[in-house]
Amino acid sequence: MKDYSILIAKNLGLNQEQVKNTLELFETGATIPFISRYRKEATGSLDEVQIGNIRELYEKFIELDKRKATILDTISEQGKLTDELREKIEQIESSSALEDLYLPYRPKRKTRASIAIEKGLLSLSERIFKQENFNLEAAANSFISEEKGLNSIEDVLAGARDIIAEKISESAQLRDFLRRTFHKFAKISSKLIPDKIDEGKKFEMYYKNEELLSKTPSHRLLAMFRGEDEGILRLHIAPDEEKTIAQLQRFFIKRQSYISKQIELALTDSYRRLLQPQMETEMRKFYKEHADKEAIAVFSKNVRQLLLAAPLGQKTTLAIDPGFRTGCKVVILSPEGKLLYNETIYPHPPVAQYKLSSDKLKRLVLQYQVDAIAIGNGTAGRETENFVRRIPFERDIKAFMVNESGASIYSASPIAREEFPNYDVTVRGAVSIGRRLMDPLAELVKIDPKSIGVGQYQHDVNQKMLQNSLQTTVESCVNYVGVELNTASKELLSYVSGVGPTLAKNIIEYRNDNGAFVSREDLKKVPRFGAKAFQQSAGFLRIRHANNPLDSSAVHPESYHIVEKMAKSLNCSVSELIKDKDLRKKIILQDYITEKIGLPTLNDIMKELEKPGRDPRSKFEMFEFDKNVHSINDLKIGMELPGIITNITNFGCFVDVGVHQDGLIHISKLSDHRISDPSEIVNINQRVLVRIENVEIDRKRISLALVRE
After folding, report:
1. Are 476 and 33 contacting, i.e. CB atoms less than 8 angstroms apart?
2. CATH 2.40.50.140 matches 632-706
3. 599-640 per-position pLDDT tens digit
4. For the whole prediction, is pTM greater than 0.70?
5. Could you tell me which CATH number the domain at 112-294 has?
6. What is the CATH class of 494-610?
């Protein structure tokens, strides 16, 4: 295997040894979470992002080398591959430079230049391009041929210019200069396509717009591209044409003469017909890819915050999927999330069985000893919350509003049908709402991350790139929190490092057939669960109340002997070591350093012994909307209200204030000083106090400002 470590280290500003060791771990099938958590000595404690960047760059260089091999073969078949050209190609580190170098050798379809060459005008074009001092008209006159369609001197010169124009467009040096010019000076302009004004109101700010491409924020660029895709806008990307052509002339014009005039004409034609369109295509691709990456990064960050939202924990939960005409679907869930009971109540008009619905909920709360009530925040959500809060329950019970984005997607999915084959989508939706309160991560992994209500322009970005990023984000979150082996769903288990869908299914089947796992070692009895899968996954799979207390911790089984050695040296058991802080203080970590185990791993072990198996997510907090606000009509400018951050974009964040329509805090209203990223100030699910700046009821728009304490 070619060693890419030097190249990757240089690009990422990392130590070569770190990169080399990381690549070797990837070669053995190690996952990013495993490498980050359990191989810190090898990587120099690189985090998941850095390790992911190494893998991404490695894959890019692999693709670049494949492309080089194809190009070398093609040029070799043409008999044009010299040692010097081979060395140039092999030394190139960017795909754009590689394609520029290959351009003159690329097999072409019929072009204006190739037609002119077929007419015998190559020699004349070469003399003109060299700017030799000769009688141009006399030379051109000798090429006139009615048979070849060269009926005049101008026909001949036009053909020669076509050859020169193509030659200019294939100059690697000129293309490199032009690429840098476009990056620095190109502007993107957008105009409304005639007769589209009625269809394109949402793109109104781009009807006549021009701005420097390199400074255009990603969300604005994606909005313009969407406007173009929808046939509303026409876009154009280019620097100032006159200045650019004047700069390009210095590459080819040796001195002003009647012959150089032909080169000037060819250069102008080359720029307008070939170079500018090619560079515009390249710039579109480059900046679209960067905008996609930014949007995907925002989306992934939001998804991460949503997945890592504080769990209520294992509580007997009554969950309600609210509705008016169709009623409210009610389910009772056990602390493990199992469906115990379901029915429908009708507390709202048009049925309005307020007393009957109230009595039913009181009875259910008492009968099942309910600890918490989860209420979906969709249609009739606030009305149902008000109804529930007025019921005088006989138990001390709290009601919580739950973001139900994507619950309907889950309820109609194959996963939900497999889980609840005998129940309809409404019951499944209510179950999802209740489970989201108990453990957001465990429930949200069952839904396509694109459907859970966060992000910006997620349907406009590269879908493969988005899917890969979200997959990595979900895997990272699941392995960061850890998974309870005896209660986890197949979907949750499938995201554990080294597991995947097939082994997850095998784990569930083994658990169903043999009962609960009593130790991590039991995993080795699961069909097809080999040594590699055990190594990659064991540290992330927990067994609560296991005989070996380390089985409920993030300490990897490969490090159990270290903890056992520590306990033995202190004449105590592992359980006593975990419980006794004073005993742990006596441990001298340097005594346990070996060739493979260093301080990073030892420090991680000590941190885990302090809080074995403790959930790293934040503690759950109570939240209530303003009791006097239920719809957008209740909002008044200047009013201050509590809210929850539901989505973060590059231009601001959206806040649920309990009126079924999120309001926007523009980035300029988030801080009293300039910020470049709203996530510097706020997080998904954060409780905030906001001030109403403006309300447009007809357009359902609410403008907010963050009230800073």
Report:
1. yes
2. yes
3. 999 999 999 999 888 889 988 888 889 988 988 999 999 999
4. yes
5. 1.10.3500.10
6. mainly alpha
